[in-house]
Amino acid sequence: MGHNILYVEDNPDNMMLVKRALESRGYVLLEAVNGLSGVALAEEKDVDLILLDINLPDIDGYEVARRLRASAKHNLAYVPIIAITANALKGDAEKALSAGCDVYMSKPINIRELWARVEAFVPAPEQKN
After folding, report:
1. Is pTM, for the whole model, over 0.85?
2. Which fold has domain 4-120?
3. N or C: which end of the chain has fewer CB within 10 A?
4. Alpha carbon 40 to chain centroid distance?
5. Domain spans of the chain?
6. pLDDT value of residue 38
7. Number of helices and strands (H, E) in the chain?
8. Distances in Å between the alpha carbon of 39 and those of 59, 60, 93?
9. What stretches of 6-125 show up as alpha helix (H) in DSSP?
10. How far apart are CA 60 and CA 95, in angstroms?
11. What is the C-alpha separation between 89 and 80, in angstroms, rounded?
């Protein structure tokens, strides 16, 4: 039940792009502008998927993923996390995966790839009958 997607992203342009793209498919986007507020929001709300920027102004996305996976809120150990980052150096994808992310996507964000990645974990509400 529900199709809440949490996006932890400090760049307002990226936030708006993803918000428009996902809301057009019927998802509800919950927004956090830094890592600590992202962890708090995930623990407070029911989320089906987390989109996570790695370069955040307070704690990085790797630490956010580790905290989510170790949270007292049991289901956060299993909520899919998609890392979305401009980091494209060798080893960055492996670092994200080892921190607890399920998928690694690079920026700039490709909307079709975003839709496909999100829908692989959470079917779009408009497509359910």
Report:
1. yes
2. Rossmann fold (3.40.50)
3. C
4. 14
5. 4-120
6. 98
7. 5, 5
8. 10, 11, 21
9. 12-23, 35-44, 61-69, 92-99, 111-121
10. 12
11. 23
CB 9 within 8 A of CB 21: no
Amino acid residing at 43: E
Closest C-alpha among 2, 43, 3 to residue 22: 3
C-alpha–C-alpha distance, residues 1 and 95, integer Å: 31
Query: Can you read off the two tokens belonging to residue 123?
Result: 């079917």
Distances (CA, A) of 36 to 60, 79, 82, 113: 9, 17, 17, 27
Contacts of 19 (CB under 8 A, 6+ apart): 7, 29, 31
pLDDT score, position 126: 62
List phi, psi (to 5°) of 97: -65, -40
Could you report the per-residue pLDDT of 18-36, keeping only the tens digit for each? 999 999 999 999 999 999 9
